[in-house]
Every structure is written in C-alpha cells, then in structure tokens.
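Narrative summary of target 7.
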Amino acid sequence: MAVLFASDLHLDPAHPAPVEAFLHFLAGPAREAEALYLLGDLFEAWIGDDDDDPMHGRVAEGLAALATAGIPVWFQHGNRDFLLGPDFATRCGMALLDEAEVRPIGGVPTLLMHGDQLCTRDLGYQAFRRQARDPDWQRQLLAQPLAARRALAAAARGESRAHTAAAATEIMDVEPETVRAALHVHGVRRLIHGHTHRPAIHRLAYGDADAERIVLPDWHARAGWAVADGDAITLVEQPL
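Modeled conformation, tokenized:
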C-alpha cells in the first residue's frame, strides 16, 4: 500500500471546486492508502477551532471517515492554518506533526515540512512567521471575538496577495543552502514539502551523493498529491 502526501489545498467556502475534489479524494484514492500526510495549508485561512463554517464540518467528516476506516491521517501546520489546534484535529481523527519531522517512508528516512521555513530570502515573511508562531501572540489573537478574527484573516490574505505579487520570483522559492542545512540537521537525503506551488522532483548535490526534494502540487487549478510506493515517489495531478 502506498503513502500519500498532499498540501496547499487552500480550502475556502468561496471556492467549492477544491473542496469537492478533496472530499472525492478522501472517499477514493485515500481509502487505498497506507497513510495520508497533509503538509500544511489545508485551509486558505484558519482563525480558530471554534470557527463554525459549514465547510469545515464537511472536511472534518470526510477526514474522520477516512481515519475510522483505518487510514492514519497526519497533519502539519502551514502558513495559512498554523492556528489549527488539537480540538479540530481530534474532530478529524488526525494527529499533529511537528513543523519538521522525519518519518521512514518506504524504508527511507524522509524529512517532512510545509516548506515556508525554507524560503529564507523572503525576510519580510520570515519576520511574520516568527511572530505568528509565538504562543503569546497566538493566545492574544484567539482571545478576540470570532468576527474580529474573520476580519483580520481577510486583511491578512489581501496583504499576502500584495506581497506575493510584488516579490521577486526567486525570493518566493526555497533557498538551496537552507534546504541542504535542513537535510544535514536531520540526517536525511530526502525532503517532501509544499508551500511554493511549484510541483517537481528535484535532485540536488549533497555531500558524496545526491539528495531528493519532492515539492507537492497546490490545488488551485488541479488536484495533486505525491504517492510513495516502496522507496519510489511519483506526483499525481488531475483536473479539478
């Protein structure tokens, strides 16, 4: 049985096609998997586990059904859903991963990350990331009324779009030396991540042998995921 990896679905009530595609994926290909790893940005925005949007309930039901069928589901926070907490994770039947975690995938030690922490040339975003991961900052945000958090999330999405449009293309991608440093720190030669929306399987020089970097597809114009079957990994992409 294969292990599946997906990220950057950016599920949003305003855009139903990716939501329906993901629910179909959970009821279809994911049912044949050994496990499912969701490596961040499952949602376009997450303002707290108390958000009562009906779409979140549908996604939770789909994930819980998969977990009940015996397929382990693992979730890693992204830059859009870093506030997703244990209450919603429990509701979905999924377990939370650290922001950098090594798992033996097909017998190969593999580093799993969302990928935003690898884009170290984007200094403005990295400053925000440090703030947003601060527990005190998160507690203060989550203490605000739900309506206020919705307004803040809408403003943040607008700022993010403006930043992405203005930033140089290379700044929005991973920094190769940061990637090599992460491989070295975790003692692995394979990395799977999302975030950049540039799906590919890269080979990079690393020490006395090559390393492998697998970048997961986003779900804007198509659905996509990675399939790890034994020690081989392939990317799958389908129209929404």
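Helices lie at 16-27, 54-68, 86-92, 123-132, 135-142, 146-166, 176-186.
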